[in-house]
Amino acid sequence: MSEPTSIALVTGGNRGIGLAIARALKADGHRVVITYRTGTPPEGFDAVQMDVTVTASVETAFEKIEKEIGIPEIIVANAGMTKDTLVMRMSDEDFESVINANLTGAFRVSKRATKGLLKLKRGRLIFIGSVVGGVGAAGQVNYSASKSGLVGMARSFARELGSRGITANVIAPGFVETDMTATLDEKRRGDIAAQVPLGRFCSAEEIADVVSFIASPRASYITGAIIPVDGGLGMGH
Fold it and tell me: Hey, where are the domains in the chain?
């Protein structure tokens, strides 16, 4: 096996979409570092504990990575959460905690990563957004707002850092096969799939394939883009 081409950091890379992304980047030859907040990280990866909602935790994790492994060149801001409820029942805490994890958390990670990317004079910032950032979703005012915010943030990073060879893009998945969606009954799954032009859910691996491309030299002239992986659900947004 050839030497790793670069160091990739995947936040929330211990399960679901994040783990699929970590596996794809590792298969591409990158040395992959995953972050996790709780639990035990999967084997086969460098791992560091990080809570993206706490600036000090982000700083400590980056210091550890840079000291023991090196400067991450590919940053995948994937860590996030949901607190779904109808807007009339949504508390300030429900709203603010989701914004803090999904949007401000991505900012904390990307801002800290930028310090190293500017030294390298190259890099990839890849934000995992959502189709609901463009189309909205009942019961997800907080989540939709957080994912929509990633677009403006990524495009601002793209304009600010582009001259240094650093790109910033948003991957926007639709309905994905995860542990959460696996618990839905068949009727509900069918109703959801019927909204999607391709008529099915997306696999985590299909999202990871797109991240793999955006992280590669083949995507060196793509920045400030929203790349949908949603089966056509959000087309036009």
Answer: 7-229
pLDDT digits (tens, 9 = 90+) for 53-62: 999 999 999 9
Average pLDDT over residues 60-85: 96
Is the confidence at residue 10, as pLDDT, over 50? yes
pLDDT above 90: residue 225: yes
Q: Which of 143, 157, 175, 201 is catalytic?
A: 143
Q: What is the mean pLDDT of the chain?
A: 93
Is 143 assigned a catalytic role?
yes
Would you tell me which CATH number, out of the four given (3.30.70.330, 3.40.50.620, 3.30.70.3550, 3.40.50.720), belongs to the domain 7-229? 3.40.50.720
Residue type, 196: V
Q: Would strands 74-77 and 46-49 be described as parallel, antiparallel, or unpaired? A: unpaired
Distances (CA, A) of 223 to 5, 123, 186, 201: 21, 11, 39, 27
Nearest to 80 by CA among 138, 10, 25, 26: 10
